[in-house]
Design brief:
Four copies of one chain form a homotetramer. Chain A has 208 residues and is mainly alpha-helical. Chain A contains six helices and no strands.
Chain lengths: 208, 208, 208, 208
């Protein structure tokens, strides 16, 4: 019986990390392409007006997405660092993750263009959910396939999983408030992302 | 007689891998630029309508191309991992491969814009064929120039080559069904790519 | 008490460097997208006219931004090389730095499109200030958190900080001359960046 | 006297290589953005017509620029591999090289849009000349600053320099034929690039 391709394909963690860094770098920089320079302005006052009304409203979704990409980049990096090696299945789990990363500039532009519509928030949340789901699947798979370093204790594995679940529940709750008002949902999401980055030592989030 | 440039130029596998990761990362992220955010929408219903009619039909070609790029990225990585070093000729074979990768966003956009035309499918298939052909040439060249690691047994080399040939034959057959209907061809190609990723253990494909 | 995620997340300097190289590479190449090829030209003379009047005026802001990105890339690289490891906080400081890098193509396009307006210069300067500020914060944090290699003496640390402060003061003074004339401010900034690159051995800048 | 920044800044060859790979990857992939998908086509015949008349003429400049970027990527890689370390000056020489790389998509688009104008060819040649000039300066500087590995013999250094000079003379002669006809110049340049890649063992070019 001939040797099968899948036995030895896709086992380099280094190249997976390199591809991921590339995709994140391009996605982060493409976000800003959505910020268009106002073309016609006859006076300083005109330009200020255009910057405040055309550019400024897009800054919030843009900054939130940059934060989001940063958070998930750190999350993925932390996982990859804890793996001993890759397998073909793990590679494809992370390629799905990168697919969700490449969609982020689209979801962000949709939210920036149609902030008042709940549908935009739903699409954005779906994107966020996809990112978290794939990272959770990756962790679970790696755990069962015994790809995680021994230094990563049971406690640390649990911490990684718990963090994903807690944040996904909070994302869903925040996004749901768009039933009341989409700006409220947007504000709550930004607050969650800032909390994730700054990581205060108090409250329920401390345990996440 | 003076030393010739070609004796020592282009022998770094690491930089070839880094350039490849960069080109794949940019090509994968550029695919999504083809997904335009609907600009005018007066109600949630309008936006939903625009997303379903303008964005959704493009998702299938887009997802298929992401799958395709992922498959060929894994394929190229597997090859590069099995080489001991590069030569100038091997470098140029892989630069041709990257040329075919950069054309993928164009072929995808053509297929997404003109899905009902057989010509779009022909161009897309040609792109797919180019990717496979160059990887096959790379493998054959590396085999003859004795650039493949000893750990990669005859069986594994045969498996790598067989996989390319089997899939290329199947791609060609799938693309040919566009004579009947281009959506049938598109569906078959997506099925093939999904099969390549999920790799079930049955049927003729098991041996590939 | 469960192990907290923040204890072990985000500690790879290599991936931080790789992401940074990716973001800088994309931002540097995106700058040139602002240089549009003149579309209609009926004679060589028409084309020359279009190149001189539409493309040439954009070359100065474009070249200045490339210089700026180069300077800050060298600056960040020098810092990262002097660190022993990363922490989650340091990672986020550098992600903020990369956020300022991704905004550079926007600030440059704004300055190229509206060179005569002081507001454009103010936005550009703010971008420049952000880059310097974050690098300064990074150095201060790393110093206190004892992340700097022992080979990096007190003198070298002071040299790194002094350089940032001296140049930021000069940037601010140069940008302020836009009250008189924006082209004067632009010229002074270019002169400062060229000085930073060429690094002559004379005057007050020698000590920076 | 305080320690000066320039003594220790910018000495990592690895990050210089990583940034270069990123810039080349983005520039190579951006070239293809110039290939626009024909938007309106009512029949297969219409689409074929549009592909042949709008897309096909752009393929030649596009492919030539991909070849050119590949050639200079191999050239730069060969140099960097032969250096023992970098200095701040060498880093800036290579940043100038990358500046010339980022301009390539613009020069290519100009040549594709206005192929019949000698001015486009002049701009393209200037870009090509800039790439060669900076690589030559890099080699000369590294030689004098004793940054080249001992394994790289005098013969090899001479071969590297000779190759740049011979090709630059041939590029200039080819570009000059645009006085007769720009398509002739374009054809000769493509022939030269193909020769550089395929590297036949005959004639004067054998010694380059």
């Amino acid at each position: 019986m001939p040797t099968r391709y899948h036995r030895f394909a896709g086992s380099s963690l280094d190249r997976l990390a390199a591809l991921s860094d590339g995709v994140f770098a391009v996605a982060m920089t493409l976000l800003v392409l959505d910020l268009k320079v106002p073309s016609a302005a006859e006076s300083e006052h005109d330009l200020l007006h255009a910057l405040l009304h055309q550019v400024a409203p897009r800054l919030l979704p843009y900054a939130m997405s940059f934060l989001t990409l940063g958070i998930f980049w750190v999350g993925q990096q932390t996982q990859l660092e804890s793996f001993t090696r890759s397998t073909r299945a793990l590679t494809w789990i992370h390629l799905s993750f990168l697919l969700a990363v490449t969609v982020m500039p689209f979801s962000t532009a949709l939210l920036a263009e149609h902030t008042t519509f709940r549908l935009s928030m739903a699409v954005y949340w779906l994107n966020l959910f996809g990112l978290g789901l794939v990272l959770f699947v990756s962790l679970r798979y790696a755990d069962r396939a015994r790809l995680i370093r021994e230094e990563t204790t049971e406690d640390m594995r649990a911490a990684l999983k718990r963090r994903i679940v807690v944040y996904q529940v909070l994302y869903a709750l925040a996004a749901l408030t768009c039933v009341v008002n989409t700006y409220l949902a947007l504000g709550l999401l930004v607050a969650l992302q800032l909390n994730s980055v700054i990581a205060p030592q108090v409250g329920i989030l401390d345990r996440a």
